[in-house]
Amino acid sequence: PLASSRPQMGIVEEVEAQLAALNARLPELEGKANKKERTAVNKQIYTLENDDTYVAAKKSQIEGGRAAAASEEDATHAKRLEEEESARAAAEEAAEARAAAKVEGAADAGAAEEEDGESHLEFKQLKKGDGETAPSKGDYVYCCYTGTFAPGTEHGGKDLSGKQFDSTWDSKLKKHRPLHFQHGGGKAIRGWDEALKRMTLGEKAELTIGPRWAYRKGGIQDDAGGYVVPPNATLCFQMQLVGVRDAKHDDASIQWGKGRG
User: Fold this and answer.
1) Pick from 23, 118, 133, 172: most CB atoms within 10 A?
2) 96-117: average pLDDT
3) Long-range contacts of 150-155 (CB under 8 A, 24+ apart)
4) 84: which residues sit within 8 A by CB, 6+ positions away?
5) Whether the Cβ atoms of residue 60 and residue 6 lie closer than 8 Å to each other
6) Of 51, 46, 60, which Cα lies nearest the Cα of 4?
7) Residue 61 and residue 162: Cα distance in Å, rounded?
8) If pLDDT is split at 50, 70 and 90, which confidence band does 54 have?
């Protein structure tokens, strides 16, 4: 029997070295003349392979290897999850920046052109609000919305009719992340500010906004220069006023902790 006081890794290496040496001798011991010696070598091999200390050490080595592999796999999985979360957060920040650029860019473009004295907003109430909590100029508001192109919208030879170009709906969260901005402060397109003048907390409306009160002839472009909203586009929104100052609309479909803007 092997000395149990030896380190387990040393036992495995020592025994396997002895086994390798003994197995290497077997081809030399073929034939009747070497039968006795061959039998003795095979007996030594059997004894070594079945030694309790060696078997325990080998088992421990195998289990340790499995544990190390599992630990490495867990670490790799955790790193991948961390990278995915970082990428998701970066994508959310980029989306928020683009949303802010859209409303601010539209407000700047709108201010650059003279008013024509006409309304470029069609307003259809879909759901009544509380009838009391209305935003005043300068108030911070929260809005949930989905924006699509009006029928007949074309750009670059493509029909964009009804195509969605923006929304506060987060498909991963299955909730709206409302846009937060200052009403009447030049942070939203003119059509939105005009619509908000008619609305109270919780009210939902369908808006059709002509280009003069939307993104005008400049449109909105992405970082690569492609048009998110083409020039002179008429836009349709389903919009709900879900927050006015500190008052918030009670709705399970809204993610208040991660608002946009």
Assistant:
1) 133
2) 58
3) 150/208, 150/233, 150/234, 150/235, 150/236, 152/234, 153/230, 153/233, 153/234, 155/227, 155/230, 155/231, 155/233
4) none
5) no
6) 51
7) 64
8) confident
Q: Which residues contact residue 30 at a Cβ distance below 8 angstroms, ignoring those fewer than 6 apart?
A: 38
Length of the chain (residues): 261
For 60-106, write each residue's pLDDT tens digit.
888 887 877 777 887 888 888 888 888 877 777 766 666 655 555 55
* Helical ranges in 28-51 per DSSP H: 35-49
Q: What are phi and psi of 146, to 5 degrees?
A: -135, 130
- Fill in the amino acid letter for 20: A
DSSP designation for 150 = P
Residue that is written with structure tokens 């699509």 in the block: 148
Which two three-digit tokens encode residue 257? 């902790």
CB proximity list for 112: less than 8 A, separation 6 or greater = none
Sign of CA dihedral 193, 199, 201, 207: negative
pLDDT in tens, 166-222: 999 999 989 999 999 999 988 899 999 999 999 999 999 999 999 999 999 999 998
Cα 99 from Cα 93, distance rounded (Å): 10
d(CA 44, CA 52): 14
R_g of the chain, CA atoms, integer Å: 37
